[in-house]
Amino acid sequence: MKLKTLFILFLMPLFIISCKQKDGILEVSVDYDQKEKWASDQFAMWIEDTSGNFINTLFVTQFATTELSYTERGDCVPVWVSKAQPSKMTAEEIDAISTATPVSGIFNHTWDLKDKQGVKVKHGTYVFVLEATLTNNSRVIFKNNIKIGNKPVSVPGIPEYTHPDREKNKDMIRSVIVNYKLIDK
Question: What pTM was estimated for this model as a whole?
């Protein structure tokens, strides 16, 4: 009886603590080569659930959030535009997710695992998406599942080209690596 009581009083709290959802972040590393052509260099990164429901935008180039880009240039990251609906965002919301097109090199971005309402997402499997407009209606979408949980994980973005036969600007996004990391609090 004393052994059972000791277990309940001392070991059970340790077990509960170890099962608690751990905090983490998602780090995205993009090998990007800026092109100097009209109708290129626009990209957006976002998270979906495994059913394709939009969770949050991680990053988008500033031009892609302008009305000009999605009304007159419908080929500028159109999947992101349809999911994120920038026309319904406030200026503050757009400012929080957008920035000027980055310079060539490794572009890093960190996500705090919060949805668009600012609520931390639960552990589970999510889909990372990066859509880039290479030129006019030629795009690439890098995608992969990422498991958010109690263990760190790293996955590459898997590219799918709308026009795989077109070589122009095909190397604009050379690679995407997504890392889920645990953080100490």
Answer: 0.85
For the chain, 185 residues long, give each residue's pLDDT as a single digit of tens: 565 554 444 444 444 444 556 789 999 999 999 887 666 788 999 999 999 999 999 999 988 887 767 676 777 899 999 999 999 999 999 899 998 888 899 999 999 999 999 999 999 999 999 999 988 888 999 999 999 999 999 999 999 999 988 888 889 999 999 999 998 76
DSSP 48-102: EETT--EEEEEEEEGGGGSHHHHHT-TTSSHHHHHHH-GGGS-HHHHHHHEEPPP
Q: DSSP state, 6?
A: H
Domains parsed from the chain with CATH numbers = 22-182 (2.60.40.4070)
